[in-house]
Amino acid sequence: MDSPATTMGVLSIPSTIEHKFSNNGKRQAWARELHRVFCMQGGDTDVSYANNSEPTACAIALSKPLLHDAIASMKLFHGEKSIRIADLGCATGYNTVSTVEFVVQSLRKRYEAEQSHVPEFEASFSDLPSNDFNSLFQLLLPSFDVTERPYFVAAVPGSFYGRLFPSGKLHLVVSLNSLHWLSRIPEAVLSRQSSGWNKGRVWIDGANRDVVDAYAKQAQEDLDKFLHCRKMEIAEGGVLFLLMAGRPSLQPPENQLNDEDTRAKHPFTIIDQAWKELVNEGWLEEETQDMFNIPAYMRSMEEVSSAFEKCKCFEIKSMKYLKLIEHSKEKQEDWIKDPILYGRAKANLVQAGLRPLIEAHLGMAPTEKLFSRFEKKFSEDINLLNKTCFYGLIVQVNSVV
Predict the structure, then answer these.
(1) Alpha helices, H only, 234-300
(2) Nearest to 33 by CA among 133, 129, 164
(3) Rounded CA gap, 324 and 166, in Å?
C-alpha cells in the first residue's frame, strides 16, 4: 500500500482530478449493473478474499452442526446415478471447498450405511461472472482426478437471483454468507429528487426511513426471486441450507447492527467515517459519497420467514439466530500490543469484500487513499479495539415439498 504522502501526491495532480470528473457516468453505470463488477477480491494477495475469509469460516463452523443435522435427516434419493450439490455465492478460497467436501463426505457415509448403491456426486460452484473462478479451481487441481477427489466439479456463473440450473436438478443447495448482498442498489437512494436519496452516507444503518424502506423493499424482492428460482431447481425432498447475515426478531430495519459497540467498530461504519473525512479535507468529491451505497441489507427473522410463507414450496425445518464475535480473545490481546497490525488486518478484511466495488466507483488511487485512511482510523483509536463487535447470523434449513 502506498504511503499517505505518496498517495496524496498522486491525487493532487490535474490528470487525476480530470479522471474523477470523467468517471461520473461510470459511477452511475456500475451502481445499476452490480453483477458486472461485484465480487470478492480475487487472487492470493494480502487483500484477497481467500486470505481474509476467517470471519466467514467461523460463521460456517458455528452453523455446521445444523448442516450436519440437515444432511442426517434428509431424504436419500433412490435410483439416482448422481447426487447434485450446489454452493450459491461461493466466492473463492477454502471455505466453499471445505463445505462442499463436508456435504459430499456426509452424504456418502449415509449412502454407504443405508443403501446398496452409492451414487456419484456432482458439485457446482456458482457466483457472479466477475468471481475469481480461476483461483477457486486451482485449489482443486491437486486432486482433480475423481479417484482422489470423489466428486465432479463445475462452475456456474450467474446471479442466484435468477435461474441457474434446469428444473428439479439439485438435491442439496447451500448458500453461505451471501444473501445479505442485494442484486442492485435501489433507484430511490441514488436519485437527488427522491426522499430516499442517501446523501452523505455509504450505507443505511441509521439513515432516514425512506432510505431504509427502499433497501427493505429491494431485499424482499430479491429473496422472493431467490426462492422462486430454487423451488424450480431443487428436487422434491431436497434441502436448501441458508446462512446469512441478519437481525434478531423484532429489531427494526433502521437498526441493521446489534448494539452500540458493534455499530461503532463495524467495517461499514468506519468506511463511512473515513470517506466523510476525505470529502471534508477535499481529497474526494462530495458526490462520490452521495452516489456510493454498499449493497447490503441484514434481514430480520420475520422478513426471512415471511418470504418462505409467501413462496409456499418449502418446509422450514429449523431456523436460528446466532451471534458471532468478530475475533478471539487471543487475537485481541495480540492486536492491543500491535495496533498497526490490527489496522492493517481490518483494512485487508474490508478490502476483500468491498474493494472491487469501491475501485469501480473511485478509481485505483483514490481507493488506495480511502483504505489507507480506514487503516489509520483502526490503528490510532485504541477505544475501538476495546469494543466488542458481534455479527448477527440467521441459519435456516428447508426442504422442498
Answers:
(1) 260-265, 267-280, 286-290
(2) 129
(3) 36
Q: Which residue has the cell 458486472?
A: 36
Q: Pairing between strand 390-400 and 314-325?
A: antiparallel
Cα separation, 103 vs 234, whole angstroms: 16
Give per-10-residue mean pLDDT for the chain (401 aa): 36 34 48 71 79 82 93 92 96 91 95 92 94 87 63 94 96 95 91 88 89 96 97 96 92 87 89 94 92 93 94 92 82 80 88 88 93 92 82 89 79
The string of pLDDT tens digits covering residues 273-332 is 999 999 999 999 999 998 899 999 999 999 999 999 999 899 999 999 998 887 777 777
- Strand runs labelled E in 114-272: 120-127, 152-157, 170-176, 234-247
Q: Which three-class secondary structure state does DSSP give residue 324?
A: strand
53-65 per-position pLDDT tens digit = 787 888 899 999 9
As a whole number of angstroms, the distance between CA 50 and CA 46 comes to 9
End-to-end CA distance of the chain: 52
Residue 348 to residues 35, 37, 44, 343, 353, Cα–Cα distance (Å): 23, 19, 12, 9, 9
- Can you tell me whether residue 152 is helix, strand or coil? strand
